[in-house]
Write a structure and sequence with these properties.
Layout: H1 13-22, H2 30-39, H3 42-49, H4 66-106, H5 120-136, H6 140-148, H7 156-159, H8 165-174, H9 179-187, H10 192-210, H11 244-258, H12 264-274
Helix pairs in contact: 4-9, 4-10, 4-11, 4-12, 5-8, 8-10, 9-10
Length: about 300
């Protein structure tokens, strides 16, 4: 495939507004819009502008305002913050279960032993990641441990406190198949293969949120596995499992184990009330999602 060099000039915020106006977008307060576009790039806003355009051309649908677009942008920002705060709880729970269950089976330094993992090269990669995370940490417990002991790593319950969610996900994925791996998954009412897939998916969503990328109507590049059965109630599987609804349901499922009195659904519904123009079907929500036991 022959490629060309991109060399389009940058256009000013004033010209960006004029271009949007020429496509039919209405600006009720140009000065406010200018201020927003000076702080939120047009490239970032583009993903929120496009759903308001007519099919087949660049013109905006009739009576579409810049405020309509910005409300979706703000909804997405608040949605990401909500999801991110809940993922923290799941991450901490998984750190704890990995440490408790694997520690009982294989000792407090089980993660250093390559015999506990499927692939030696991947285990080396995992240890390098853990070592790098430890080097970057200024956690008091880590600093105190290094000062007092010669071990290359603190025990799992200390080491895992500074490991990333991505590292934890890789660790679980590469653990040898067996009773211990299945026991971690059973704590969340899942098979170990589904646990591995779902962890991978929610780490991906966590990274979307952490990097302030669009989540709202995104088609996810990672497709979480469909479970044959789950211990706790789950949703009827939608036709499109790469939409946000499916992965939010996975997050909610984990939360039901981590904290059965979680307020995720209530806070999500408050968010929808705050932004009534948001079309939840763009996120893959079915029309009867409110009736599902998990989402009640």
């Amino acid at each position: 495939m022959v490629t060309s060099t991109y060399n389009q000039p940058q256009i000013s915020v004033k010209d960006q507004i004029e271009l949007l106006k020429s496509d039919g977008l209405i600006f009720q307060d140009e000065e406010r819009a200018r201020h927003l576009l000076e702080n939120v790039s047009m490239f970032r806003m583009k993903n929120y502008l496009n759903p308001f355009r007519q099919r087949g051309n660049r013109r905006f649908r009739k009576n579409t305002t810049f405020d309509d677009v910005y409300k979706i942008y703000m909804f997405d920002s608040e949605l990401r913050n909500l999801v991110y705060s809940e993922l923290e709880k799941i991450e901490i729970s998984i750190r704890t279960q990995l440490s408790l269950i694997m520690g009982d089976v294989a000792g407090i330094y089980w993660f250093e032993d390559s015999s506990n993992f499927r692939n030696t090269n991947r285990h080396i990669l995992l240890l390098n990641k853990l070592a790098d995370e430890l080097r970057r940490s200024d956690d008091e417990a880590i600093v105190a441990f290094k000062r007092r002991y010669s071990n290359p790593f603190p025990p799992s319950w200390i080491t895992f406190e500074v490991s990333s969610f991505g590292t934890l996900s890789m660790m679980y994925r590469w653990i040898n198949a067996g009773k211990a791996r299945r026991k971690v998954a059973r704590f969340y009412g899942l098979s170990d293969t589904v646990m591995e897939s779902w962890l991978h998916s929610i780490v991906y969503v966590r990274n979307i949120c952490a990097h302030h990328s669009r989540l709202w109507n995104r088609k996810l590049s990672i497709n979480a596995m469909i479970p044959r059965r789950t211990l706790k109630p789950f949703i009827n599987i939608p036709k499109e499992t790469k939409k946000v609804y499916y992965v939010l349901s996975i997050i909610l499922y984990f939360l039901e184990t981590v904290n059965s009195e979680n307020t995720f659904v209530a806070r999500f519904k408050v968010l929808l009330t705050k932004y009534p123009s948001v079309d939840v079907s763009a996120m893959g929500f079915p029309s009867n999602w409110n009736d599902n036991e998990l989402w009640k």
